[in-house]
Design brief:
Keywords: Coiled coil, DNA-binding, Membrane, Phosphoprotein, Transcription, Transcription regulation, Transmembrane, Transmembrane helix. The longest helix is centred in the middle third of the chain and has 126 residues. Helix 4 links the parallel strand 3 and strand 4. With 905 residues, the protein is an alpha/beta fold. Among the domains are: 153 residues, Heat Shock Protein 90, CATH 3.30.565; 117 residues, Rossmann fold (3-Layer(aba) Sandwich); 116 residues, Orthogonal Bundle (Arc Repressor Mutant, subunit A). The structure holds beta-D-fructofuranose. Beta-D-fructofuranose binds next to helix 2 and strand 9.
Amino acid sequence: MRTCYIPYFLLIISTCISCGPKEAKNHIQVGFAQAMSSDNWRKEMEKGMQVQSSLYPHVKLEIKNANNNVESQIQQIHDFIDERVDVLIVSPIKSKPVTAAIENALKAGIPTIIIDRKIDGNNYTAYIGANNMDIGKDAAKYILSGIKDFTSVVQITGDIASSPARERQLGFESVLKKSEKVKLVATIHGDWEKPSVTGPLDKLLDSMTPGYIFAHNDRMAMGVWEVLKQHDLQNKVKIVGVDGLYGPNGGIQYVKDKILLATILYPTGGAEAIDLAVKIVNGEFVHKNNTLNTVVIDSVNVDLMQNQFNKLVEQQNDIEGQQQVINEQVKAYQSQNSMIKLMIGLLVLLLALALWSIYSAVKISRSKRKLEIINEKIKTQRNQIKKFAQQLKESNDSKINFFTALSHEFKTPLTLITSSVETIFEQNKALVGQSSFEMNLIINNSKRLIRLINELLDFRKLETDSFTLKPRKSDIKEIMEHVLGDFKLEAVKHSVQLKVKYPKSPCYLWVDTNALDKVFFNVLSNAMKFTPAHGKIEVEIFEEEEKVKICIRDTGIGIPQEDIQNIFNPFVQASNNDRPSSGLGLYIAKQFIELHKGTIAIHTQKGTEFIIVIPKGNKHLQHIKIYPDNIQITEEFENHLKPSEPESILFEPASVQDNFSDLLIIEDNTDLCHLLVKQLKNDYNIYISIGNDAIEKALDIIPDIVICDLNLPETSGFELAKKLKEDLRTSHIPVIVLTAMGDEDSYIKAMNAGADFYITKPFQMDALKQVLKTILYNRERLRYYYANKLDSIASVGFDKDEQDFVKKINAYVLENLNNPEFSVEELAKELHISRVQLYRKVKAILGVSISDYINGVRLEKAQELLQDSSLHISEIAYGVGFSSPGYFSTAFKNKYGITPKRYRN
Ligand code: FRU
C-alpha cells in the first residue's frame, strides 16, 4: 500500500523543482543568419551582438554561419522560420538569391532585420548598416583632396553580387567622374578576399603604375600592398581601404603602419542590430533604414581613433568581465535555486513519509492489537479444546483401560469355569445325564464369553496399533478345517448344509494362524447366524498364481445394499439384523486381513458372499517379523483343563519327594494356583509365592524351575526374573512366564529380563506340562555334559554364568588337591554363597552333590597320575587329597569299577 504512493510524491517533487518562474515566454529568441565568420570584421560583428544581447537577460541569440554558401544561408533562414524565432537578423551573402527566403520569414510573421548587405527590394522590417554610396564617395573625395597633378586610379571591388560592392562602386565612380585631375584607369572585381585581387592586379601593374588604388575593404587593400611590394611600388602607389577595424590586422593598424593611406570606418552594426530587435519585439517604433556613421581614418586622426577604440575595447572588456561575473552568479543562483527546490521537495517527501509512517504505525498497532485479541481468544479456545480433548481422552482411556483390564480379569475365571465344568461333565457323565443340556449351555456360553472378550481385546489392540502380526507358513486348508470343526455340529443341528471345495494339495500362506482363525470364525458364524434351516453354506478355496482366494457363501437373508459400505466399520450391524451382536467381528476380520496385505469384500444378492484374498509368499510382510514354524509361544485358545476337587493351596509341599523336581510358582490368583497345584503336584514338589517373598523363597529352596506371573502385587514378574537371573545362586534356574499379557512388548521385556519361556493365558495345561518336562530334560542333558566334560567346559550354547561357576569350582578343587582339610564350607566361602546354596546349585547344574563332585575331580586326577607317573599308589591317594589309601581305593573302585592297583597294571 505504502509503495504505491511514492511515485506520486516523486511527481510532486519533480513538479516543484521544475515549476520555477518560466522564462519561456519572457525571453526573446533572436536568430542571426551570418554570411560567414572567416574574417575579423564578421567576428567583430558577432561579438558586438553577443555583448549587447548579454545586456538583455531575456535575449537569447543564436548564430548560424553559412560559410559564404548562399544555399546554406537560405536553408538556415528557413530553419529559423521553423524554430519560430522572435526576430530574424540576416546578413545576405548575395542580394538576389536570399530575397525570397526573407520574404518567407516575413510571411511567417517573423520580423526580419537586414544588416550590412541588402536584398532586392524593400521587403524587410528594418535595415541597419552604413551608407555604402557615401563610403564610395568619401573614398573618391579623399583621393581628390590629396592630388595636385593629374593621376590615375584603380578600383578593386568586393563581390559585385553583394550590395556594398555595387553601392561603393557607384558612389566612388560618381565623384571621380566629375573631376578632370583623376582618371579611373581600371576596375578589378574581387570577392572581398585577398586572393581574388593578387592575380589581376599583378598583371595590371605590368603595364601601368596608378597613383591610387581604392580597395572596397582593408583585407583586399592589404593584398594590393603585397602585390605593390612585389613590384616595388609600395611607396609610389597610395592605397585607400574600407572597414577601419581596430586590432593587429585591422585597417587602423595598417594606416598607422603606412601600408594604407587611409581607411573608411565601416561599422559592423552588431550591437545596434540587437537593440533594434529588442525594440521590434517590444513593439517600439523603429526606422526602416538605420544608417550608421562612417569616417575616414588617415594619419591625421588615426591615433585619436585608436585611443577611442582602446577605451571602447576597455569598456567592452569591463562589460564582458562584469557580464561574466553576472553569469557566474546567475549560474550559482540557479544551482542554489535548484538545490533549494530539491531540498524542499525532499522535505515534503520526508514529511509525507513521516506522516505516512505514523499513520501506518497507528494502523498496524491497531491491527496488531486486534490480531492479538483474536489470537488470545483462539489460544484460550484451543487450550479449552485441548483440555476437553485431554479430559475426554483421559476419561476414554481410563474407561477403555478399565474395560481392557476387566476383560483380562475375566479371562482367568472364565477359563477356570469352562475347564471346571468340562471336567465335572467328563468325570460325572453318568450322573449328570439329564443335566447335560444345561452343562453344554454353560460351556458354550462361557466359550462365547471368552471369544467376546478376546474380540474386545483384539479391537483395543488394533485401535492402539499394538497388535503384532505373527506370520508363519501355514496350510490355509488346515486352518479352515479347524474352524469348520466348531460349526459342524451346529450345522447339523440347524439343518444347514456345509459344503467345502479345496484344492488337492496343501495351500500354504504366510499368515498369523490365530488371526486368520478369528477371521474365518467371524465370517462363518455370521453365515451360520443368517442362514435359515435347509439353507447352505459353501466354503471354496482357489489357488491362483500370486494369491489365494477364499469364498464363503451362504443362502441367508443377505445384507441390504445400503449397509454394505459400512458393514466393516466397528459397532455396525446390518439393518435387517436384529440379533444381539458386538458389531466388532467383521471390523476385526477386515483389519486382520489388511494386516496380511489382503482384501476382504462382500457381495450380496440372494444370500451373502465374502471374498477374502491373501497374497502368497512373505515378500509383502517384509516389515513384519516372520516367525519360524517351530515357534515356542503358545497360542491362545480355549483350554480344556480338568481341575479336581477344590482344595486349599499348598504353600509348601506336604511331603517332599526326593525324585520330584522342585517347582516354585509365583502367582497371586488363588484359583489358578489351585489348578496348577492339582495338575502338577503328582510330578513336582510345589512351592507357592504371591510375589512379595518370591526371591527369599527361591534363595531358600533353590528350585529346579520357576513359573512366574507378570502382574503381581508389590512387584512385577519382569523384576523377579531379572533378580533371579542376576544372582549367581539362582541364575541357573529356568523361569517360565505365565501371563495374560499377550503383547509383543511384554514378551520382549520378559525375555530381556532373562525369562526362558513365555506362555500366555488362557493356556493349555498339557502344553505347560510339556514345557516343564522339556526344560528339565534339557537341564539333565546339560548336567550330563558338565559331569562328563569337567575339564573342557568351554563349549558354546551353554549358559555362560554356569560355565564360569563350574570353572571356578574346578580351579579351587585342583588348587587344593593335596589338601585333605579342604572342605565344602571353605569352597562355599570362596564362592560367597552358603553351604546349602552351593550344595543345591551344584546339584541342580551337575546332578551330583558337591562332595561327590570334588571326589570325582580328585579321582580323575588320580587316574591320570596312575597312568602317567611312577608314584606309589598311597602317594597318589594322599596327593589327590584322600585321607587314607584304603578310602581312595574304595572310592576309585566305586567310580571306575576297578581298583587303582589293577588299573595301573
Ligand atoms: C566583411 C566584408 C567587409 C566589407 C563588407 C561588405 O565580410 O567583406 O570587409 O566591408 O563585408 O559587406
